[in-house]
Every structure is written in structure tokens, then in C-alpha cells.
Amino acid sequence: MPSPILFISDLHLSPNDPATTAAFHAFLQGPARTASALYILGDLFEFWIGDDSLDEAFNAEIVHAIAQLAGQGVNIFFLAGNRDFLPGARFAAAAMLSILPDPSLILCNGQTLLIAHGDALCTDDIAYQRFRRIVRHPLVQALFLALPRRWRQGQVEKLRQRSKATNQMKRSDIMDVNPQATAQLMARSHTRTLIHGHTHRPAMHILPQGQRWVLPDWYQGQGGYLKLENSTISMHQLDGSPF
């Protein structure tokens, strides 16, 4: 029987949530070791301000743990999220993983799957999409990465606080994916299965176009993952029980 393929996202790992860090290490040493591939669909870290973040002990610890899993023969892929969209070649080499574009079409166990972080599909949040276009511009990123790490970290902290305050005032529906944008993306990709994270609203949605799986977020040691085994997709809690 082929080994399963696993999907995770929205762990938001940071030294401030040691329970989730411990849960991630347990996941890498448990379910992930039985997989043939692991796809990380963004927001692995609370933030990633550039590959010089590897010089920080916490980040180096996480990346080393991922590399150990890769060294055991698990193929690992990373797709950037809205919190960690600045990974580069140094990060990829250190973690022994491959960075994929968002979105990506992948072929798994004979199925064509569309994977994404999910934030680009939240098109009703016009202010966020405007911000996303700016910070994803290659010139803006190059200028940002050229600045001192301490300054970058300070700016990211300010943005996080501002985003938290702004999101509290937004309607819940505009922070979810837009059905039309989702349908258009699936139609362009010629696939009937979409897997994404970002919204922190884990579920499986039946659509006219097929299925939309939303990955669970992780917090204080709780979380989950998606498993593709043969042709069956299922969502699980970290202890392996159904989500």
C-alpha cells in the first residue's frame, strides 16, 4: 500500500506558543514519518522576515527538524502564506524542501489537486488584497530584505498589531474565500479538488466544481492535518482521530 500524503498549514509557530511547537515536533516524529510527502501550505511560522531569520535559535530548531524528516525519505514541499512569504534558497536548502508557487497543481496518487494558501481567494477583502499586491511585488521585497533585520522585525510586529485590530472590525464573511473566485480558479486549473488554509475554518465543502478542503489551524498544541491515502482524502486531529 502506498504511503499517505499529508497536508498542513497555519501553524504560526513562534516561541510564544511552546505547546504548538511541541505538537509540531511530535507530528514530525509521528504521522509525518509514515508519509511519502508532506505539503506545508503556508503560515508555518508566525512571521518570516527573510532567510537571515535562520540565525535565530527557534527558527533554526524548526528548520532542522523538517530537514531531519526529509533525511528519512519524506518529500517536503512548502507554499508561502501571508505570514511567511519571504522564504528563499537558503531556507529551502536548510530545510531540505522545495518551494512551490501559490497556487500549484500537483499530481498525487493519480489525482490532480490544486493547492493554495487561500488568502488570494479572499477577494471581498479589498484592503487586504491591495496590501498583498504591494508586499508581494519583487522590488518591494528586495528593498525590504536589504534593510536591517531588527528594523524588519519591528515593522512586522507593528503590522501584526494593526492587522489584528483591523480584522476585529471586519465582517466575518469578507475574510472567507469568495465563491466566484474559487470557482474561476478551479475552472482554470481543470481540477475538481482544491486544498487550502488561511481562513482557520476547517471543513470540506461540496461545490458544483468538486470539493474544497480547508485545512485546520494549529494553536496551543491543537491542530490537524489532511491525509490522502490511495484515492481517499480525510481530515484528522493530531492524535490521528477524525477531525
UniProtKB/TrEMBL annotation:
Superkingdom classification of source: Bacteria
GO MF terms held by the record: hydrolase activity
EC number per UniProt: 3.6.1.54
Cofactor requirements of the protein: Mn(2+)
Binding-site positions, substrate: N82, R83, D125, S163, N167, K170, H198
Note accompanying the cofactor annotation: Binds 2 Mn(2+) ions per subunit in a binuclear metal center.
Pathway connected to this protein: Glycolipid biosynthesis; lipid IV(A) biosynthesis; lipid IV(A) from (3R)-3-hydroxytetradecanoyl-[acyl-carrier-protein] and UDP-N-acetyl-alpha-D-glucosamine: step 4/6
List of residues binding Mn(2+) 2: D43, N82, H117, H198
Compartments, record wording: Cell inner membrane
Occurrences of domain Calcineurin-like phosphoesterase (ranges): 4-202
Catalyzed reaction equations: UDP-2-N,3-O-bis[(3R)-3-hydroxytetradecanoyl]-alpha-D-glucosamine + H2O = 2-N,3-O-bis[(3R)-3-hydroxytetradecanoyl]-alpha-D-glucosaminyl 1-phosphate + UMP + 2 H(+)
CDD domains on file: MPP_YbbF-LpxH
Membrane topology category: Peripheral membrane protein
Protein family according to the UniProt entry: Belongs to the LpxH family.
PANTHER family: UDP-2,3-DIACYLGLUCOSAMINE HYDROLASE (PTHR34990:SF1), UDP-2,3-DIACYLGLUCOSAMINE HYDROLASE-RELATED (PTHR34990)
Role this protein plays: Hydrolyzes the pyrophosphate bond of UDP-2,3-diacylglucosamine to yield 2,3-diacylglucosamine 1-phosphate (lipid X) and UMP by catalyzing the attack of water at the alpha-P atom. Involved in the biosynthesis of lipid A, a phosphorylated glycolipid that anchors the lipopolysaccharide to the outer membrane of the cell.
Protein name, entry field: UDP-2,3-diacylglucosamine hydrolase
Gene designation per UniProt: lpxH
